[in-house]
Predict the 3D structure of the following.
Amino acid sequence: MQKTLLTKLSIIAGLCIIFAIGLGMIGSVIYERQNYAASVVKEIAQQHVNPQEVITPFIIIPTTITPECQITAPETTSKCAPSYSKNEIVFASQTQAIQDLEVSTDTYKRGIYHATSYDGALTFDQRYTFDQAISSLYDTTSTASDAQGSVSTPTNKNNTQSEKTIIHWNAAKLIIPVSDLRGVATLPTVTINKKPIKATYPQTALLKNLTYVEVAIPQNILQHSVKNITSQQNGNNALATNGASESLTSTEIVIDLPLAGISNVNTVPTGQNFNLTMRSNWHAPNFIGKALPNAKKITAKGFEASWQNQYLTIANNQDLSQCVSIANNRCVVTSQATLDNNSQSMVSDDALIAMEGAATAEATAIPDSYRNVRLNSFGVSFAEPNDVYLQTERTMKYALLLILVSFGTFFLFEVIKSSRIHPIQYLLVGCALFVFYVLLLPLAEQIVFWKAYAIAASACVGLIGWYTYYVLGGVKRAAIFTVTLAGLYAAFFGILTTEDMNLLLGAVFCFVLLACVMVMTRKIDWYKIA
């Protein structure tokens, strides 16, 4: 009898090892299907639209710099570096951004796979006060220019021509950066002081790796501030006072930007007093980026969240100002819009170090070197919180426990009720339990996961219940085993649906199972059975 018992236990252990290997093979299938689904989403992004990153609009004023040089003879110069271009940036003194996004999983599909996409509008309501910005610009350049941008710089007594700067006021642009302009169905209409102006695509990029649309700033917007500063430089205090009173009036710019993308959306805050409010119909948002929302409200019908982070905004202002002012447009702005939510950049850190350390041949003639900038952003990911592959993978973590409980129940029937169950019958019941996971994945790819789970579990429980009627030789014994098995499936599903407490509930469930086995076998004389 002892030899028979050891043989039976060895066979059960061997079957469990075989099924564990089979479960590992199913796990590799889940991983393969998951990667294929991700590749389909990437293909959709390449063909239609990527995740979006929107930088808060700002104003750029181009300048031309002629470096200081020595004059060796009249009308002859030597050691004079060529002129180069730089840009000056003006940020909004106040920005109120509102995003209204409609999220859908039906827009982009490839067979049974789909990408979570969004479509809606992004509105920027900005205030600009140009006095301080233009004063700072004049202090930096230390030159005088008229409204047309001309400049006159004298030669000093040491035969050295001072650095000369030309500020191109007539080329000032409002920049509206969007990482993938394919998601902007129509060019936005920009309202400047209640006067609509149509945005255009740029003819020449002001920053590398930055895609945007631009709006020409009307000359009368900057005219009062320019006159005020030039009057101060000329010592005309009365005119300066009058100009200041007029130029202190803020300029209102409203930007209505249509926006579409997939998977996630990021916003880069710039300027002063930035506030973002996002509203969407998506019920399970995943907040990503460098800052969580200050306030949020999530319901079954959608969510609303708002952000306001002054530290990130100031840091972006500093980085973007330095990047914009790099000579000859040799600064790269790196987007953080990516399908990988765990990644903060589409460019690796090693690549960034290499790019920042590189310098072009003209670096000796101009004061700035080639550099790279990654701006701080925050936003929302619309990926499904529990996709079918993750849920199936979590379900399989309890597979071996399910098989052990089923085989253990059979074994207890043999010990307590003196039933005789052949190893082949153990094998067939184990195969039926194994088929549950084979059914679950393809069903979950077609229908809602809980329905797929219910169908696969019902099919397997029904098949095993019918089979155990003949194996155990009675309706009562078959009913006990069937109810036990059905309870296991129901308990496992309940554990899976409680995301925050699944580990705790799983541990409690294992403890309860062990307690039940110990209670049922407390009076068995194992020496006598052996």
In short: The radius of gyration is 35 Å.
